[in-house]
Fold this sequence. Notes:
The protein has helices at 64-67, 70-75, 86-116, 131-136, 225-242, 255-268, 282-293, 300-307, 324-330, 351-358, 377-382, 413-420, 437-451, and strands at 3-6, 18-22, 25-29, 56-58, 82-84, 141-143, 150-151, 156-162, 170-178, 181-187, 210-214, 246-249, 276-280, 318-321, 337-341, 365-368, 387-390, 393-396, 400-403, 429-433, 455-456, 463-465. It has 467 residues and is α/β, with parallel strands linked by helices. Helix 3 (86-116) packs antiparallel against helix 7. The longest helix has 31 residues, at 86-116.
Amino acid sequence: MAKITFLGAARCVTGSRYLVEADGTRVLVDCGMHQERPHRERDWEPFPVRPDSIQAVLLTHAHLDHSGLLPKLVREGFHGPIYCTAATREIVQIILLDAASLQEEDAEFKKDRHRREGRNGAHPEIPLYTQFDARACFPQLTAVDYGQPVALGPNAEAAFFDAGHTLGSAMVRLKVRDGGEERTIVFSGDMGRPGKSILRDPTVFGQADYVIIESTYGDRLHEPEAQTVSKLAEAINWTARAGGNILIPSFALERSQEVLFYLNRLLMQNAIPHLAVFLDSPMAISITELFEQHPEMLDEETRGLIRAGRSPFDFGGLHLVRTVDESKAINHIAGTVIIIAGSGMCTGGRIKHHLVTNIARPTSSVLFVGYQASGTLGREIVNGSPEVRILGQDYPVRARIVQFTGFSGHADQKQLLDWLGHIEKGPRGVFVTHGEESAAEHFAGLLAEKTGWKVSVPEYGDAAELK
């Protein structure tokens, strides 16, 4: 009997891993890290099935919560192809190497701190994987075009379709045969938002037997784009008048490019002061360059700007910060600057060091432009915690904190429902994943009420037969 096992992103937002089995064929859709504090231990556990028994991995996109455990999977014995789009293949190599480097640095930092504090070694003082492990999986990355059928043995076939979420992001349509019957399973991956700037709209499907759909914003609607951009301008102008710095924790993939896009627009309109802007992320810098190398994946407006030689991701006053010394020097600049740095949920990276300098300053602002998962430092800050622990020390939160939902690269409740509404005949089952438990339950209940479909919210480790 064909079945799917939910090995991540079940009643939580990160850790996407779905194992599909049919008539002897095993396929893994995504292999992501958990980033919420209660679930991170799962990443250290042995893989639930033998990695060498999996025929292929289908990677929807390069974000760590979808790709971050690939080096561990390969190290534990997976030898098959990792299928993804060409842009994802390029981006995921950048992201995995950066993740491995940060893990190595964090492990050394913890060792030094525990040694200074006279503490015995605390888990994890070793990285989950190394840069060597990350590079070892690169030869298995196999690029496919949107719409190109990929045979996964005699009983399975996959195809990728534009998800509109990040550069190269994909939805996956997987067809499996078991006992003489064929079933079509559609994985939404992280679904983008129709009509949004930079990327093309998500693909819609007219037929599916089963759907695995994300629900990050399944319980809410996004604010309009114009309102978000106006709110961004207000926050920058307030901080400039106060004389503090503007910190923007941002994911290197998609969110950083989107922030640059809107800053460029505001500067051209003279809606904000012409401040120095620091993109303090070597990874984001490298990925931004890839956007211009893949115009075929961008919307018509953005392609037109690039063809005209007016990149929407570059402007006067923008400084690309690659080295650690350059990053440290930013905190010695007098006056107001804008600092865009990773990670987007403040779980690691250079943003932590900028927070140490600015989080206790009432004149500074921290602008959150992406989703903050439960159990992350970013979530603590936006929830109004009066004090947070950063790099082993406690700091009072006195900076102005502003959260934006309009920048999100995820579809909201209405957009998710509209996307599902294109399926002409109701699926046999819909599995709601990749959302906090309350959001997933809310969306599942609403969908079942509106359609009468069989909708469920799987638990971590649940297996569902695809009858």
